[in-house]
Amino acid sequence: MRIWIAAFVLALATPWAAAQAPIVIKFSHVVATDTPKGKGAQRFKELAEQRTNGRVKVEVYPNSQLYKDKEELEALQLGSVQMLAPSVSKFGPIGVKEYEAFDLPFIFPDRAVLARVTEGPVGASLFQKLESKGIKGLAYWDNGFKDMTSNKPLREPADFKGQKMRIQSSKVLEAQFRAVGAIPQVMAFSEVYQALQTGVVDGTENTPSNIFSQKTHEVQKYLTVSNHGYIGYAVITNVKFWSSLPADVRTALEGAMRDATRYANAIAQQENEQALAAIKASGKTQIVELTDAQKSAWRKAMQPVYKEMEGRVGKELIASIQKEAAAVGYK
Ligand code: LMR
Fold first, then answer.
1. How far does residue 98's CA lie from ligand 1's centre (Å)?
2. What is the CA(212)–ligand 1 centre distance, in A?
3. How far is the C-alpha of 156 from the C-alpha of 101, rounded, in Å?
4. What phi, psi does 65 have (nearest 5°)?
5. What is the rounded CA–CA span in Å between residue 302 and residue 143?
6. Could you point out which of 89, 137, 184, 300 has its C-alpha 20 to 30 Å from the C-alpha of 236?
7. What are phi and psi of 80, to 5 degrees?
């Protein structure tokens, strides 16, 4: 009799419990919490949970805790995680090569041009290309412009000769370093510190917020303020997961993403400026500022990458990014 009653209670309680169980969104990323992406993910979590009255629970996993670079995209495609914010270059290796256009040296003269690209038709059509991979693009988040670090001062293109430089997996970044005589080496973000410390690679490029939060400056003698390239993110989800959400939940999450995006993009520049100031203040690495002539020499040396890579990323795409720059007065 008792067993019978227990079974009856369980039968009643199970659907109730299922109805109450929150929808879990695992949001994995590879950088530190104290970065534009880390803070954006946290803001999305807060807004999403608040606006769905707890029907959604967002678990943020920073610092490659769950997956490293390439593995995280596979995990999203398989449904093991529901949200990621990889740097857009990371779509190259899964076949959406056009995104590597963002890696072209000096392609974005400033953030305003970048916003015209990501928030306009180019950004939307690039998102479209992810759908066949089972990926839905939700937003573009800024990080910022990259600097170079190494154990020798990198001032002239010739200074790169023979330097082993860590890169994210991107044919454009490979070409960029080959153009100046360096040896590019693809490596997961989480392995960079140790590789620099042990001399497996000589140097790397990244944004100040990543350099500072990964303590790269503690194992590199020089940092060249070059702003030669850009790192930004696409916040993505699994298409099937997203379309399986109840419509009201999806709408609330879209709103949370919109506001988290506004926040993340508003703080990115300042976060990077503060990180660069903190690197300078640490005194652990020497800062190299380029003269205008040196910067022009970098541009000139890296220029052949455009021609070399137009077959990979698309000549029209490069032209449409340049058109956005020309629209606001850049030549
Ligand atoms: C890198 O691998 O250097 C960056 O893409 C890491 C990141 O997500 O900012």
1. 18
2. 13
3. 24
4. -60, -40
5. 22
6. 184
7. -75, -25
pTM: 0.93
pLDDT tens per residue across span 203-237 = 999 999 999 999 999 999 999 999 999 999 999 99
What residues form DSSP beta bridges with 61? 28
Best mutation site among 87, 103, 141 for ligand 1, i.e. most ligand atoms within 8 A of its Cβ? 87
Write down how long the chain is.
331
- φ, ψ of residue 225 to 5 degrees: the values are -75, 95
Ligand 1, from 231, 235, 236, 272: best to mutate by most atoms within 8 Å of Cβ? 231
Nearest to 58 by CA among 40, 83, 86, 90: 83
Q: Could you report the per-residue pLDDT of 16-31, keeping only the tens digit for each? A: 545 579 999 999 999 9
Q: Is the dihedral of CA 26, 30, 34, 37 positive or negative?
A: negative
Question: Residue 192 corresponds to which tokens in the numbers above?
Answer: 């960079």
